[in-house]
User: What shape does this take?
Amino acid sequence: MALNPRTPSGPIEKRWDNAKFEMKLVNPANKRKYNVLVVGSGLAGGSAAATLAELGYNVKCFCFQDSPRRAHSIAAQGGINAAKNYQNDGDSIYRLFYDTVKGGDFRARESNVYRLAQISVNIIDQAVAQGVPFAREYGGTLANRSFGGAQVSRTFYARGQTGQQLLLGAYQALERQIDAGRVKMFPRTEMLDLIVIDGKARGIITRNLVSGQIDIHMADAVLLATGGYGNVFYLSTNAKGSNVTAGWRAYKRGAFFGNPCFTQIHPTCIPVSGDYQSKLTLMSESLRNDGRIWVPKKQGDTRPPQQIPEAERDYYLERIYPSFGNLVPRDVASRAAKRMCDEGQGVGNTGLGVYLDFGASIERLGQQAISERYGNLFEMYERITGESPYKTPMRIFPAVHYTMGGLWVDYHLMSTIPGLFVLGEANFSDHGANRLGASALMQGLADGYFVIPYTLGNYLASNPLDKVAGDHPSAQAAKEEVEARVRTLLSIKGRRTVDSFHRELGKLMWDHCGMARNKTALDGAAEKIRALKGEFWQNVNVLGESSDLNQSLEKAGRVADFLELGELMCIDAADRNESCGGHFREEYQTLEGEAMRDDANFSYAAAWEYTGEGKPAALHKEPLTFEYVKPSQRSYK
Amino acid sequence: MRLTLHIWRQKSPTDKGRMVPYTLDSVSGHMSFLEMLDVLNEQLIGKGEEPVAFDHDCREGICGSCGFVINGVAHGPRRGTTVCQLHMREFEDNAELYLEPWRAAAFPVIKDLVVNRSAFDRIIASGGYISVPTGSAPDGNAIPVPKQDSDMAMAAATCIGCGACVAACPNASASLFTSAKISHLGLLPQGQPERHSRAVRMVAQAKDEGFGNCTNIGECEAVCPKGIQIENIARMNRDFIAGAAAYREAQAEAGAG
Assistant: This one.
């Protein structure tokens, strides 16, 4: 099967307008006749469900949390980019587009990225109108900051809680539609399979997490907005419940998985403190605007940071990358921290940490100004570590944060299964091999508010669908498979807990498919993960029943899918014989240790097709062409 | 350190429920409270006992999923902190801790420490929004908002909807939660057109859900992990009174076009 990305042609600034004009529309009176399922209620899912309901579609929305307001988008701290150029500092749609393509290390689709940059301005307008309390200047206008390697100030923010405020905006819009009866919300409900009939996505199988009931929901289209799969590493900044199950089930039903190995390791997280560690906490990278990163010049220097004089500190980002300094993109900053720690200059008990120091900024701006900018982050750090960043530098270390990979989608956000659309982090589309700071919120909301309303309408208007009901054999078969899987998980009664498998998988992934990868280690890890999967299905111990709230059972299903995904990630990483963005292959680096891309051979998106249990996934390639931003070696020096 | 935990175990909404004692050794001060419960649960599974169910997700204090009562205090002893951010260094060695779910008629227990808080969603659905369909917004800077108003709105908007305020209130009132949203939106120019209808509808919905009234006790503010202040309740009352006098549900009138 040839991949058709359906990217429009013509001048890039006209492509989205032209595409929209060419799209078919659904008559307003007919919209209510269409049933749409939205899985996930974060920025992408919540905004899509609300917007589609406003348009008149019949929407059902599902989330595994107890309320749509708890989706993990809520934890995004730093901000959201938009090419408003309110600061008159040289920003433009073209510059945001340019920065994003370059930041993604030339592994994203130009057309998608341009559209994202165009839509960014509408998102801010929409959010402000909803009452999102963005930071403001004294004159009442919106404030901006520079963020994550950008040389213009285009990031809008609401303290360190931008994700929360944007999500609540989308959530409130969604609740308004729920109240109006146009969205039926299913909280504490997990999607466990996709129903495909005549090659088209026609419904899902869900499990009610409280009653255990397995249900069939039929529809004309299915939207997955189920977030990223960083929890395959066990320790990540993702919420504990974030999982790949919906996407993985769709993959096994025929949706291709795009660039699974593209993982973002965020440079500024609180280091691991012990074996009991259940998750990692991000410290917004906005902190890098005013914090300086350093390690002691001397290896194994155990003096407290305050006692290390300036001359004996290595501000290594400022030294290696003088023009971007502490604001280099995430992948670059993370790898530099790893290198310092590998060379024995790491700090803290484990030696896996570097300092993020606010001393100079507090001296320059005063504690009040720093507290206004980062107060809540400093408090969070202090609660977790028992140390105050006002007095002693923060210790930080990279952690898995975001996955650029996801289900492959075309320009219309449609997967390789017609009628199955994938939005937000769950798809692979816009960030290439590395996402820039403050771009995730932008993409989630762009997809939900401003892309899917057009592309979904076009799909429904151009594809007449037969009526199907829940008694269709494909739906019944999918339901029976789900029920059988639940029964199996409960019947194994082995000796190991779900978490112990998850931790072991996570360690394999972090050690071999993390910040630095090589072919031998990846092959070995894939082999070990296959064996671990084998053991899981023999030896996992899931107590309790399926007929009530059973959190171990929920986790077991998710970990079973992570085990399969982990293997595919290693295969994808081993297959991509180059370094790009967050994917760093030790065999492919410059003399200075920077990532070395191979545009001649790897300028493509990898889309993996499931070919059956125990059979190797088949690789399809979507060639990437760059007409506007010519690939170059990224340099932040 | 070593702990004795008395945890509310309740199999289902209809089960009677009871406190069950557990002891746990080698607890590290660097563990979060939920990581400590993870350790307990791993041990329980090892012994063939069902683990303790508790809601949690982000473990960063922002999603609002987690929360239970520790020794009579919602979210435990540290102010401004959810249980996921509470660390064991806050407790003494050999401490004896009593863990209970939120207690409120409007928050029925689902299992162990997990309660159903969907009443909060219905309060928001009744009016906790600004009606602005996607696409109909003016330019972001077309609506200047004084920084002070914006900051006050933000302070109210940081509510995470965890429900601690209800659990702490002797009346099981949802006033702090409801007023935080009414304040957030009512303080902004964008929120003015629906300010009165919003207050009237949301207050009525909270009552219908079975939450009690506010009698100015202030326990809610004391336990709120986000520092939401009770001045929001005063603002809610003001908007409610003004709304009750001025606002009427719209009557359907035909004739457009």
About this structure: The first helix of chain B runs from residue 33 to 46.
